Amino acid sequence: MNDIAQDLNRHKLKSHIKELMSKNFGPEMYPELKKVGGLANAMNNEFERLGSLLRVVNDETIRKLPMTYARVENASKFSQIYIAAKEKLYLPDFWRDGACLAHGATDNISDLIKAIDYWLNQDISTQDLALQFSFVNPSDKAVHFDNNKEIEYAWNNLATEDDDKGLKEFIDVASKNEVLNKLFPFTSLYTLCFSKCTGYPYDSTGLPNVTMIDNRNFCLPGGLPENEKIQHENLSSKGRLYLVTIDRTQIIGKGDANEALKMVMDNLPNDIGPARKGIAMG
Q: What is the pLDDT of residue 230?
């Protein structure tokens, strides 16, 4: 499972916008945008021609972005659209319930609008979208989210990833726990987190987090007294140890994988249940 920042492509978005604003970007490649004053206007014109009621989101946040970004949404689905800098390409993504399930690339704005309208207005799977529009490429996780297997997929994905975060021993025992394995797991930096929903923004406030103790500086404020105490302990005697925190500010304790699992279970809300499909409420 990718980190939150990777899942949202924040770095990719910032880099993309920077590239679009570089000297390499030539508006002459997009005369249809230049003619009407930007991507949003061009897309809205195409929606109108198609007879669709969809329109580009128009709010203060969107207006602060360059003319080369747009967002269209309907209920629990949305698409973001960027444009390429070095060749003429419209680059949409396709989200449902807080998960990005596909990307696309086309040089035809009419085809772009038809794909977005189909995705947002029809009750279809990501595979249905890709079959209808050849320029759409579903992600590896899409079929699992389409089939309501996203929690199982997330745990399996964590179990088969390289152990660069040092979490494998804990993941092995946690994935067998009948309570934890029904929550949606994700990593943030070097910390394993649990969510009560399957999409971003995740609902993990107040739930325990687990970090290999060698990576504790990535999950705790440096000035926290408990953290300073841990810094001076001999941590090698028990092998791989894990630090259990809540909201990465309150230390619950430390221990091996099984001990950490017990601490996590002891600090879950009494009414915890399987993660719901969708995003955090409020």
A: 58
* Structural domain spans, the chain: 4-146, 150-266
Give the strands of the sheet with 69-74, arranged side by side: 69-74, 77-83, 90-96, 99-104, 136-138
Residue 16 half-sphere exposure, CB side, CA atoms within 13 Å?
Answer: 19
Separation of alpha carbons 140 and 6, rounded Å:
15
Q: Under 8 Å CB-to-CB from 137, ≥6 apart: which residues? A: 102, 103, 104, 130
Instruction: Please write the tens of the pLDDT for every residue from 151-199.
Output: 999 999 999 998 999 999 999 999 999 999 999 999 999 999 999 999 9
CA trace torsion 124, 126, 129, 134 (10° rounding): -170
**Angle, vertex CA 158, rays to CA 155 and CA 160, nearest 5:** 110
| Type of residue at 229 | K
More confident call, 86 vs 252: 252
> CA-CA distance, 280 to 272, in Å (whole number)?
15
Among candidates 36, 15, 35, which has minimal Cα distance to 24? 15
Residues ≥6 apart with Cβ < 8 Å to 78: 71, 72, 95, 120
Q: Give residue for tokens 């939150």.
A: 4
Average pLDDT over residues 79-87: 92
